[in-house]
UniProtKB/TrEMBL annotation:
Source organism (scientific name): Desulfitobacterium hafniense (Desulfitobacterium frappieri)
Molecular functions per Gene Ontology: phosphorelay response regulator activity; transcription cis-regulatory region binding
A biological-process GO annotation: regulation of DNA-templated transcription
Protein name: Stage 0 sporulation protein A homolog
Function: May play the central regulatory role in sporulation. It may be an element of the effector pathway responsible for the activation of sporulation genes in response to nutritional stress. Spo0A may act in concert with spo0H (a sigma factor) to control the expression of some genes that are critical to the sporulation process.
Length: 324
């Protein structure tokens, strides 16, 4: 139960007979957190069937579970998800990128296969170029970050060798990205949609420079976002970049919430805040902004208390201060 707000699965298979908490009660609690959760109960006792459907279970499996029964349930779940997808107020079609930086660091070649990096250093140097796409990076900057404890005459050959290895990997990628040498430094020349990070930064830049809000692109990127940046790579130099991206993501979230408030589309606003909470449940300021919007949302004012309760449950499970 404590991990549920972080996982937010689409389906929960729940045994009705469990120690400490009855499966029916667990299902009710999970549905309070995620009201579109599909529940499938399992039990050896048929008398629970009626109770199971009182909590709007999608299906029910009797023990011992046979292969045919499981196939029937999976087929039904597929139908449920296809209907939900057609009815979803937001088309959460996450765009496909050759390079993924949000929530993981994955680089795929033209055949969509994960590339194998010759060294970890080459992989990290490429990540640094991605985070600074289009910016001139001097070789002295690279030496200071990646070979700080090595003498210059030994470090420079290491740099040249690493850059060469990165270039060899780039030849395998779609969209023809290139690292160009300019005087005493380098620049990554690549289309912005090579990576989710590059596309996100470009869209946020455009939204600042132009009065028009790129809604569709913003929605797709919003739902492709996940933390932490570069996954579990733990690059020390990426901390300030991650902080900047998080700030921009918060601005995007608030902008989308205001847009759907003005359009009086509560369900779409709910999808936005739920995805944001999955990344930044500790952002009390954003939670309060949402509560304030809901409190003034025509016809839905009473949902403010409901959301406050949901937020406090999530905050409590994360051992964070509750909203008053």
């Amino acid at each position: 139960m404590a991990a549920f707000p972080d996982l937010m699965p689409d389906v929960a298979f729940i045994d009705i007979e469990m120690p400490r908490m009855n499966g029916l009660e667990l299902a009710r609690r999970l549905l309070e957190v995620k009201d579109d959760l599909s529940i499938v109960f399992t039990t050896a006792y048929g008398q629970y069937a009626l109770d199971a459907f009182e909590v709007e279970a999608t299906d029910y499996l009797m023990k011992p579970i046979m292969k045919e029964d499981l196939q029937r349930v999976l087929k039904r779940l597929n139908r449920v998800f296809n209907i939900q997808k057609r009815q979803s107020p937001l088309l959460k079609r996450v765009p496909s990128f050759a390079v993924r930086c949000f929530g993981a660091f994955e680089v795929r070649d033209q055949q969509q296969q994960m590339v194998r990096w010759p060294t970890r250093k080459a992989e990290e140097v490429f990540a640094y170029f991605l985070a600074n796409q289009g910016r001139y990076i001097s070789k002295w900057e690279l030496l200071k970050i990646f070979w700080p404890e090595i003498e210059e005459e030994r470090a420079i050959p290491n740099l040249y060798n690493t850059i060469y290895r990165v270039k060899q990997v780039l030849k395998k990628l779609p969209l023809s990205p290139k690292i160009q040498k300019i005087n005493e430094g380098y620049i990554l020349e690549a289309q912005r949609n090579l990576s989710d990070l590059g596309e996100f930064l470009e869209v946020m830049k455009q939204s600042k420079e132009n009065s028009e809000f790129p809604l569709e692109a913003s929605i797709s990127l919003f739902f492709s976002y996940a933390t932490p940046l570069f996954g579990d790579k733990d690059y020390f130099w990426s901390l300030h970049i991650e902080k900047y991206v998080a700030q921009e993501y918060g601005k995007l979230c608030h902008k989308l919430l205001l847009h759907y408030y003005e359009q009086n589309q509560l369900q779409k606003g709910e999808e936005i805040i739920q995805h944001y909470m999955a990344q930044y449940i500790e952002d009390e300021d954003m939670l309060r902004k949402w509560l304030k919007l809901v409190a003034h949302w025509q016809g839905y004012e009473e949902k403010s208390d409901e959301y406050r309760h949901r937020f406090n449950e999530k905050l409590a499970s994360a051992e964070l201060p509750l909203l008053e």
